[in-house]
User: Fold this.
Amino acid sequence: MERLSDPYTIRYPQIVGVADESGGHVELIEFFDCTGGAMWVKRHYAQSPLVCSVRTVGATNRYILSAGSADLALEGSVFPAGIAAVAVQGDEIAVTYRGLGGGGVGASICRASASGVVRHKSDPAGGGRLAGSTIWLPRRERVVIGIDDTDTPEEGATWTLAHNIARAVEDDRSRYLSHTIVQLYPVPYRTKNCVAIACEFATSDPGGLARHYRDLLTEYTLSEETGMAVWRGFDTAPLEEFGGKVKRGEVSADDLAAITDGRLSVLMDGRGAIGAVAAIPFFTRYEEALALWNGSG
Assistant:
């Protein structure tokens, strides 16, 4: 009979923290292995005063948090666990969890032992006890890379190449978070489906990440019109208007050139650069991203 090495602990596979430029807000991305536990946490942690929002993306729960601390009025079944403190300290992000009973187990050793945690302070947990932990994560910034036009009518597929390169460039400094296929307006010169890709990363080495990605894309693309764009910033909202235009109709290179935001860099400026930039603001917004806005949406 197989023996359980640690029957009362479920370790989070990975926890990642992304801070905004001011350090006032953090996106906490928790990769989970147990769906039931993750949904329980999502419901109850949302009651924490520091939690602005929470959503599930694939096998992750993603919390937008305000920096600060809060007293949690924990109560069994009603509000049994939550996030009590968030701090951006130099090149680290500290997050404090508290919970009752099983919620205390999740708030302590389950997170303290996750990949991505630099160090931790954790209470003994189990039974009906109040317990928790503080974990420290590397401070990372968000980078979203947009890609379009890598294939030909005979071979290739942009969505697969984008994902495989994203996996290849992932390392301890850059974590690959999401891949989004974005439906664009079907222009006459499309290969077939007219989609672009947004790959999202959390990184402490944005320049190295972008260069490595560009080098591999240059090596493996099959098209001479490939576009690659890089956004460095917590919020991609400044690109939403442009992205919407490209989903609704044909857009010119002059429209792209009119974007002067310094957080955007175009590293490969083929015709696909328009779609590459347009894909960026739709990262993880899958329903909107996949919708065909063919002039009436």
